[in-house]
Amino acid sequence: MAQRISAGELSRKALSDTTKYNPIELGHHLASDIGKHLRESIEKHKPIFDEPEFCVVMVIASDPLIKNLVRRKFYCWPYLPKPRPNQSVFLYNRAKDDIVKRLWVLPHALRMATLASTNCIVDKEDETMQAWSVAFFKGRFWEFIRHMHDIDMPSEQEYFLTHRKELIKAGCQIPNANSSEPFDFSKIAVEKVIDTKEASID
User: Is 182 inside any structural domain?
Assistant: First the structure.
């Protein structure tokens, strides 16, 4: 069995590569297998959600340890997820067994801020992304998305409020935001504290 190349090794190889790549071609290459991963996520979540439609999400995230490593994360929610930079959200329809809408695609944070600025003029293909970015910064994102796509899917908070009794019955404890549990200092005991001398190299 061939040994798998680690992320660190791939990162070093990428740093030493001096080839100049076309950003458009690179973007198309990175997006070429997204459909496969979206479908994998759908198949995992179909038995979990009862809803006739749910959101399929892709987030692009940088790695906290490897500087030039970017990861794509795929998951599903039965409600509209909180919008965030580097996020794409699609609407899956169970009856059609397919993705029926691209709800939104948000670029990285700086690009979002630039698109949302009042004096930013964009190309025709960026107009929709600009509208999403403006709605995000104006705090009316979900209302805009619902109107744009003619859907009534709830946000995360609205979903939990609607299904509150079912979730509590299923064992999910919904915390009260107005009260917090104070730390129990009686849990700290002298014998639970590790003696640092035991960890000494000497």
Answer: no
